[in-house]
Amino acid sequence: MARVSAQPRADRTVKLSDGRSLAFAEWGDLEGRPVFLFHGRPGSRLLCPDEDATKAAGVRLVTVDRPGYGRSDPRPGRTLLDWGGDVEELADQLGIDQVGIPSRVTVVGLAAAPGPCDKVPGAWDAQPEEVRTLTELLWNDDPAALEGIRKRVQWFADDPESLFIPGWAGPDDPDAVLLADPEILEAMQEWMREAARQGTAGFVEDWIAEQQRWGFEPSDIEHDVHVWWGERDALVSRADTDYLSSVLPKATRVTYPDEGHLFPVTHWAEILAGLL
């Protein structure tokens, strides 16, 4: 069984050039080959899918709070592209020469990753009407969009652990089977409690950044990209995975037929092997 952990070997913050604090944690072999893991929406730095597999692979795993989550200061108005600059500054301060950003990238992995809502076939129509309305307000720079998004994600600040309540996905769902393990459940809930340390700040910023036009074309990415997806994922669709696999020039796709959204927990060693 994977040893999911919310207790890193190192847990620190750095000061960025604009004065913001950026929080990160480290796992595995702190003298090993660096791999950066960026959490989904919502999430925080406090999760390693399998600490034993990370150490066995000789990996120095660095997990980072995006702005507004955990202990990283908010950055209102940030875009997807802004994140690369934050990571590059962190890598500089850690003395890491090769990481997953354009000028220093070696390989990229996308695990249960959505594509751009305005490009994935059927993605726009599949979103709830409220989300489409808020997104259109956002695209039109309507001030009402921000308040609407805050209200939509307020549940996260009020009860972040509710994202992983037992049975959330049905008794036969593969994610529910994983969460029936008390140690895995507690690690996941700690991950979310830390993500909500600043309330909805990070979630709102993520929501806006993802729903806006991305500012780049996935087809322009020249690096090797591994695309992993579980066929029983209730949060990321086959259409998203099909899109990313088809437009990324050097994509390698792996599909797990009987896995859900949390498949990195059970396949972490395999994922790391693909990146090394």
Tell me about this structure.
This protein has 276 residues and is an alpha/beta fold. The protein has one domain: Rossmann fold, CATH 3.40.50. It is built from eleven helices and seven strands. The strands form two sheets. The chain has a four-stranded mixed β-sheet with strand order 1-2-4-3. Strand 3, helix 1 and strand 4 form a beta-alpha-beta unit. Helix 4 packs antiparallel against helix 5. The longest helix has 14 residues.
| Proportion of residues in extended strands | 15-25%
The largest beta-sheet arranges its strands as 1-2-4-3
CATH class: Alpha Beta
Total domains, how many? 1
The amount of helix comes to 25-40%
Number of helices: 11
Kindly name the structural category.
Answer: alpha/beta
> Uncertain spans, ≥5 residues at pLDDT below 50?
none
Q: How many E strands?
A: 7
What is the CATH architecture descriptor? 3-Layer(aba) Sandwich
- Termini separation (Å)? 22 Å
Name the CATH superfamily classification.
Alpha/Beta hydrolase fold, catalytic domain
- Please describe the biggest sheet, giving its number of strands, its sense, and whether it closes into a barrel: 4 strands, mixed
What's the alpha carbon Rg, rounded to whole Å?
18 Å
Shape annotation: globular
Mean pLDDT: 92
CATH topology: the name is Rossmann fold
- Give the SSE string: EEEHEHEHHHHHHHEHEH
Layout of strands and helices, then pairs:
Elements: E1 10-15, E2 21-28, E3 33-38, H1 51-56, E4 59-64, H2 82-94, E5 108-111, H3 123-126, H4 129-139, H5 144-152, H6 154-158, H7 174-179, H8 182-195, H9 201-211, E6 225-230, H10 238-247, E7 251-256, H11 264-275
Parallel strand pairs: 3-4, 5-6, 6-7
Antiparallel strand pairs: 1-2, 2-4
